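User: For a benchmark we're assembling, each entry needs the component sequences followed by a predicted structure for the full assembly. Here are entry 17's components. Please fill in the structure.
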Amino acid sequence: MAGSQDRARVRELLDSVRAAGRHALTAPEGKIVADAYGIAVPGEELARDIDEAVAYADRLGGPVVLKIVSPDVSHKTEAGGVVVGVEGASEVRAAFRRIVGNVRAYAPDARIDGVQVQELVPPGQEVIIGAVTDPTFGKVVAFGLGGVLVEVLGDITFRLAPVTADEARSMLDSIGAAEVLRGVRGAPAVDRWALAEQIQRVSRLVADFPEIAEVDLNPVIATPEGAVAADIRILLATRTAAPRRAYAREEILASMRRLMEPCSIAVIGASDEPGKIGNSVMRNLVDGGFAGEIHPVNPRAGEILGRKAYRSVVDVPGEVDVAVFAIPAASVAPALEEVGRKGVPNAVLIPSGFAETGQQALQDELVAIAERYGVRLLGPNIYGYYSTWQNLCATFCTPYDVKGGVALTSQSGGIGMAILGFARSTRTGVSAIVGLGNKSDVDEDDLLTWFAEDPHTQCVAMHLEDLKDGRAFVEAARATVPRKPVVVLKAGRTSAGARAAGSHTGALAGDDAVYDDILRQAGVIRAPGLNEMLEYARALPVLPTPKGDNVVVITGAGGSGVLLSDAIVDNGLSLMEIPPDLDAAFRAFIPPFGAAGNPVDITGGEPPSTYEATIRLGMADPRVHALVLGYWHTIVTPPMVFAELTARVVREFRDRGVVKPVVASLAGDTEVEEACAYLFGHGVVAYPYTTEKPVAALGAKYRWARAAGLLT
Amino acid sequence: MAGSQDRARVRELLDSVRAAGRHALTAPEGKIVADAYGIAVPGEELARDIDEAVAYADRLGGPVVLKIVSPDVSHKTEAGGVVVGVEGASEVRAAFRRIVGNVRAYAPDARIDGVQVQELVPPGQEVIIGAVTDPTFGKVVAFGLGGVLVEVLGDITFRLAPVTADEARSMLDSIGAAEVLRGVRGAPAVDRWALAEQIQRVSRLVADFPEIAEVDLNPVIATPEGAVAADIRILLATRTAAPRRAYAREEILASMRRLMEPCSIAVIGASDEPGKIGNSVMRNLVDGGFAGEIHPVNPRAGEILGRKAYRSVVDVPGEVDVAVFAIPAASVAPALEEVGRKGVPNAVLIPSGFAETGQQALQDELVAIAERYGVRLLGPNIYGYYSTWQNLCATFCTPYDVKGGVALTSQSGGIGMAILGFARSTRTGVSAIVGLGNKSDVDEDDLLTWFAEDPHTQCVAMHLEDLKDGRAFVEAARATVPRKPVVVLKAGRTSAGARAAGSHTGALAGDDAVYDDILRQAGVIRAPGLNEMLEYARALPVLPTPKGDNVVVITGAGGSGVLLSDAIVDNGLSLMEIPPDLDAAFRAFIPPFGAAGNPVDITGGEPPSTYEATIRLGMADPRVHALVLGYWHTIVTPPMVFAELTARVVREFRDRGVVKPVVASLAGDTEVEEACAYLFGHGVVAYPYTTEKPVAALGAKYRWARAAGLLT
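Assistant: Structure for entry 17:
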């Protein structure tokens, strides 16, 4: 994009600006940067005096804009330093005098380098292209319409910089007022290619020069013929963040494998005394059925739960994969030293009393020890973790043994307990539950790197309040999403919520608009709330991946059909336009007053055979890609009869290799609850008393399938 | 607003337009209407020739706008019939010629009455004020910003016409870009009073003249000094809807009282044969414990369930309040005749096979019979109804006996079954469940009129797909809302959903944007989905009404605190700014590393005494108006311990007359489910595994309290 000579020119310029102790580039400096990166700006010259201004205006031809050039005036319009649409020598002279006079009055001590004489940009659609440095994600590029839309409605979209051409084009469609760019009320469409090109160039600029904190092209005038930035504003950072220690992918996988599939575990602070955390952890490891070695470590040695205890972890025979800490905060550091000396790759730090209680120094000490020995730290301030396929419950909470496809993580212990209770109540099949707590070291991207590889994990669901390194997370998510869905509940979405996050973890919560766009860019499914995260986690591994967009609703209750249709539109899904032959096929099974079309309304009071025949049609027709069923409880077709026939038909087709997602909403008396549990256990995502939840689960699966590139 | 002379002038004008067979008023005609209603429009004259145009332009002074006047050209700009900003005799002459030439070319056969010479409106904020005739609500007035905002983003708001001054002002705040009217980027605020005045005048105009189908003031130019409509467009209706038969309030109450509190019920088609609907209805009436008289009616007479059966309802001794029909559709009409002759005021029509299956004529016949005898019809095509405080289950579904404060209605039988199952599963206290089905007669406004008076009903929740008479519903809702909350689930919200509604009931689904605004205007709480409607119905009667806006979160899990804060903002609630003395009082009970402020984070692992002390503080302080609790399951404070202490404290304060809404989110293992059920039973709205639901319920209560005028 910019050649090495161009980059060298910008490097030299930025260095000189910083050497001069300035953070804001002047307009002529901005023009140099823009030219180096091919960012289209109007032709312009810097006039030192009135006569130069007249000469330049004459050379540019047509009306011009005059703008003050001063390192001390950054808001030129406020200072009266801009005059637009000046033409001819006498007008240029008058405007030059007026500008200089205004600025002298506004800021008497400002150094005035001259007046910029600039081509007048043609009328067109005003847009904003910019870049900022986000505390979580680093350089991000922004795009929005100019004027009130951006400011009042916050109609702006963000992407990680640099962006590809496709990503840049996607930004044009991501704003609420996207249609305006395509031309409304007979206005012509703007040049989308040119706009995307400008976005890409700005994103490349900030990626190449980390010291650029902010770029504003505002406004950019977009016309059918191109896009020209009427003004460019570039700010340099006053300081840059310290780089975070990074692990190579192979290092992460090696330690994570030993954490999640350990052969030998030491419990630091194991205890025989009921009520102690070190006792709960021991009991859960033993009762959970972990088949590897479990070594209690306790200064009093002896035996604990019938196992030989060691005074120190260094005395434990053989290699140890995981040391679980169940001792008070103050004792952790010396014990961690021993864990390091023993060469244990993973320390699971259950104790609290570190950064979350203001003891940042104590936590920093642990990190320093861990880095010295190459020990990875999970926590501190966590409930521990579960790896169900290993029968591993390294936690003081109760064991959990329903093996399945979803890995769940939580930053908060309370949310971890909600995960456990929900999973147990719904018998959600789980591959892992991991507490992350203070995230002194291991965080979401480490776990995601592992879960992407873990064959037991088919879906990952994460509760988080902040990301230590947004870019590392996006990288891990992008590597995972093509293989399995990643659901994220980002807490602290709203400003009040973000404030609470601040007081809870001391972490600076990112701007939610940036989080939202970047998580979507990474292909992550964002859950709107805790219950949705849990329901998606339960449903996504159960649902097969759809092969196309055609959703068909088959319902016994017309009323459910209407609500299911509402939910389908709300979730961005498409009600299939039923082809005439399929419509006729449905009609053959339903009463004459039933409504074919979509929803297929089989009407209430129909026998099991009508449900079965129509579900078979939907399963068999290759043009149908997903089924949404609406069941109405009647004596003719009781809930369990419906559940069993639906499960049987779905399995029969699956056995023949025909796999489609099927979800169901059951309206009826309390027997529908048992029927839903049965259906869920047989591969059909079903809920009682709601038309929204089954469709939301299907919608989440579709969002993932699109992000994974499995649907076009 | 408009005097009788003004109205007479408009009446005369509209009559003459209709007499001429026209539906669109010309600009000069629009000006006459505007002047009569005090709608500010620019000064203008109709020039018949060039010389008149020059003279008028001179008289108006300053630049003017010239516009073609032709009954045959409604899109003047497209026809080249408008020139803006003409000043001086020669410009006016040239513009006049150009316009007439353009229009001749555009529509050679158009009659040209002349050219309108109009004052040029000053620059300002463009807005749109209009009025349309909605199929459900009749005349509604609309307001939005001009330009792309209205068209692309649909940023427009509606109210029933006519509006009060307060309602008109509320419209200015109801659009997404409301801030623009207050002035952004240093622009001055517009004259809100003048804008509201224009809205009110337009709304009055359409209310006074039902034949006006549409009014468009587009654009209205709003400045700090006023608001002037640059263009006014008025269209007349081609046909008007037939008026619907209306019952007086006292008539409605009299028949509803006998329906919901009957002394004597006849079952038409009662049967001894299990599996028949007439048997199920009889059994449910008897088994449900209804204390009044139950009279089986069956042509074979004899005894049914041990009660004497009659050949005809006319043979039943004494007065009958309700006749429940459990016979095939074809037999209903003659039986209804007999019901009419007996003087029974209410017929409950369970059978299907009427309008919903295309048998509109059969249904119309019933309505005609009913009107002749003054019988009110519930249904047809319904499951029946429950009136729990009467132990009355007049339905073929299973009985329901948990007495309580919510009355639920549903248009669809499937949704009715979901209501029953949900209520039974959650032990929701119910006053009534009513199926409305085809709504051939009794509809939501009749029921609402009764429920408003019914002392057992504290909250009304209604599922509906359409409203037969939107204005009657709004009137009933407005009368009810000051006394009790009204929750509405409007199905067919989205365009796909609305299409399904059309095929289900044959009713024209209204535009959802209009529904949304008007339901809000009526003070109704709109539930976003079925599950929300059910949860609000369960929670609202349990929650006391808040006395102010200050919400305090007390949480044992910081993670829940963040999510609860998110939910509070999402639901339009306010996290209280905790005063220093209260903050200090909280701090006295929580660990030094806990976060006071709001949320009050008492930290995990605290004993019951910490929960109790902090909840007591929140209950006792009169500046706190509502509590949101976040519980974290630990061994130190198990779920039922938390539930019992919370219920005890809340009751203790209630006994002392201190009543505040308290909601709770319980994060923990499955024991939290029992704890939530206990709390719900003791006046605390509590949910497991979700931070969203308890706050959504509190948010619904607040929305009602505001609509009812109980909060300022």
